[in-house]
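Query structure, 172 tokens:
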């Protein structure tokens, strides 16, 4: 009975959890990992959806995948970019959405068939001294996890580039 009850309890908890309560923890972990401020300022939700259709039908095609949606996501600049005109975030997106293959997690693989960014804004900045906001800290040790993002979709995005060395101020 434990083998049946445990998955049922886990499913009920996952289906009824208010994922917004996890935002402070997620924001802190992401900020720490990225070395700059990260925030999910809007709603965070998790639903369950059928996986994308693959060639063959098997029991795996009936297992729903978690689908995460985060509203108003912001990634700040590193502390080295402290000038007043550089306070706008490195990146912001009105909605970030993706599904995740849960069975791949057992093999330490994060497989995301589609990562979608709605109305992203990216601000790439470089100061006269060469410091920029697009270089992230590099970890010396290799992660045991493998990340596979199959497709990235941008809807109605804007990219700003302000480069003091090249004297560029571009919007695309």
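Result returned for the query:
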């Amino acid at each position: 009975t434990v083998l049946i009850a445990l998955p049922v309890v886990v499913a009920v908890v996952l289906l009824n959890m208010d994922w917004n309560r996890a935002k402070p923890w997620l924001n802190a972990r992401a900020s720490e990992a990225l070395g700059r401020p990260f925030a999910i300022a809007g709603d965070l939700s998790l639903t369950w959806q059928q996986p994308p259709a693959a060639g063959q039908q098997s029991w795996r095609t009936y297992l729903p995948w978690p689908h995460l949606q985060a509203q108003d996501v912001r990634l700040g600049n590193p502390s080295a970019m402290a000038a007043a005109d550089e306070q706008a975030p490195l990146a912001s997106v009105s909605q970030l959405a993706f599904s995740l293959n849960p069975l791949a997690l057992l093999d330490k693989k994060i497989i995301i068939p589609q990562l979608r960014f709605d109305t992203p804004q990216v601000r790439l900045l470089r100061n006269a001294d060469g410091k920029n906001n697009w270089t992230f800290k590099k970890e010396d040790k290799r992660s045991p996890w493998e990340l596979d993002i199959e497709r990235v979709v941008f809807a109605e995005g804007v990219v700003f580039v302000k480069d003091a060395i090249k004297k560029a101020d571009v919007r695309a």
